[in-house]
Known about the structure:
Keywords: ATP-binding, Coiled coil, Microtubule, Motor protein, Nucleotide-binding. This protein has 742 residues and is of the alpha/beta class.
Amino acid sequence: xxxxxxxxxxxxxxxxxxxxxxxxxxxxxxxxxxxxxxxxxxxxxxxxxxxxxxxxxxxxxxxxxxxxxxxxxxxxxxxxxxxxxxxxxxxxxxxxxxxxxxxxxxxxxxxxxxxxxxxxxxxxxxxxxxxxxxxxxxxxxxxxxxxxxxxxxxxxxxxxxxxxxxxxxxxxxxxxxxxxxxxxxxxxxxxxxxxxxxxxxxxxxxxxxxxxxxxxxxxxxxxxxxxxxxxxxxxxxxxxxxxxxxxxxxxxxxxxxxxxxxxxxxxxxxxxxxxxxxxxxxxxxxxxxxxxxxxxxxxxxxxxxxxxxxxxxxxxxxxxxxxxxxxxxxxxxxxxxxxxxxxxxxxxxxxxxxxxxxxxxxxxxxxxxxxxxxxxxxxxxxxxxxxxxxxxxxxxxxxxxxxxxxxxxxxxxxxxxxxxxxxxxxxxxxxxxxxxxxxxxxxxxxxxxxxxxxxxxxxxxxxxxxxxxxxxxxxxxxxxxxxxxxxxxxxxxxxxxxxxxxxxxxxxxxxxxxxxxxxxxxxxxxxxxxxxxxxxxxxxxxxxxxxxxxxxxxxxxxxxxxxxxxxxxxxxxxxxxxxxxxxxxxxxxxxxxxxxxxxxxxxxxxxxxxxxxxxxxxxxxxxxxxxxxxxxxxxxxxxxxxxxxxxxxxxxxxxxxxxxxxxxxxxxxxxxxxxxxxxxxxxxxxxxxxxxxxxxxxxxxxxxxxxxxxxxxxxxxxxxxxxxxxxxxxxxxxxxxxxxxx
Length: 742
């Protein structure tokens, strides 16, 4: 089964784009249900429904999942943008189920990334490149608007406090959103900034299909006014860039509560869009339900009206979304059958009206001269003009209306243009009054913000001074800490030396004790040796002499006592001397150790105290720096916003003041011209009636003179032919030729 769309130049162009599989679809199946043809115009859906045959759809172009952002823009959007710079209206809108890639196609994931930016930022670059490459006698004015339709209410995304805006229509502006802000821009960066601001204010929300699902239809409008200073012509082109919210199946998105209400409104507006397309294409409907939703009302000119329109349908290649994909493709096929009637939006300026009026006067003067020549020729040929007919040459300016009746429609057009100018002037006066009030309020707000800014600057200076003081205190405490750490290291080294000295003293005491033990052993040996000698001598001499034995015993005892006394005295003296020396050294070391320990403890306590003070100071300093940075950042943001607002309001004020002065002068001149033209019109109508009667008399006279003056008739015929030929040349070679040239 195959469905296709015609490629008529007046029809909406339909582009189809498929995104790659997302993670959820890959978990379900890595297979796709889509086949792409080599001509990039046909897509085939391999339906997984039982006994279902493949479905083929033909579009102006089909992009597969590997297509780049730049290729999508070059084929689908760039021709529309170029047409807008020539004065046409253009519309590009994306349609598809939720999470099918509409926002990625229209805006991209990053407006600053040349690879990932979408249609809108690329379009902005193209517009300003086109302006830069244009002739120097062309002047442009570019202004942008950004709004969203959320829950059937229109909200200004550039000024979020404006919500529930109304849609109006008039003969001059067509369909427009009343109260929607328009920002004049000079370069693409200003447009990007406004886009970022609008995207931040847009309604998005989480669903099971998309974590950042768009919950509203967004409309980005860029208006390009082109003025030709050579011919004083003006062309105005409007470009609508529409990112529609995706159609949703509640079972898949898991919408509930607020999300469910949003889904109902989204699906309702998209259903109305489908009904409008069906009514435009079925050939039977006598009523198109544009007014059934805000979306279709805003897009009325884009669907069957004065606009060149491209529809981008975005789809998923996964079998999981097969039914939604088929529905989207069929929507695109139906939309392709809509026939639009685009035309250049050309406006007559006051300068152009002056030129047209001047040319009309020149033509009238030329015709008056020809009529005067005809009258003279009639008189010279012997024919008398009836008395009831005044000579044409007597009132050249008034009599010119006879041959200028064909120009009355042109005068009517001029009158309409003057009326339009008058109404626009009235609107400009009202706008000027409103802007003056806004400017006064802004100046009051600015003064208030300046006082707040001055206060914040003073607070900032105080915080800076306090920060400097804290930093100085911290530096001093850090120096003290470094000094204490150095002293602590020295004391630690000294303590280590004392410990080593203590160890040496202990070793020396052990050595002395060992030496004493050795001396004791040696004394015992000496005692035992002396006794043995006495006993041995006694044995040799015998034990016969008792006196000798007694004296020997006494002598031995006495010697033994003396030896013991000497040994005892020597041992006590040695022990006492060693003990005194050791105790004195130990006491000295212990005192020094206690002194060092106390000093180390004091310094350690000082270090701990200083460290806690340092940590507290650092914490305070950090808090002050954070507060200071936040205040600076907030103040910079507020100052930037104030400067931007003041600059914009100043520009608006100057523009409005200039327009007011210009329109005031032009209005006075136009009022005088209108009065003169009205008087002239009434006079021409009266004279036209009289000259119709004169024509009847002339025809009768010429019929009578025909028989008597063949030469005069030939002359009159020749002159009339020459006059007609000249008039035709003047009309073809005048303003129309210049209009065709441009």
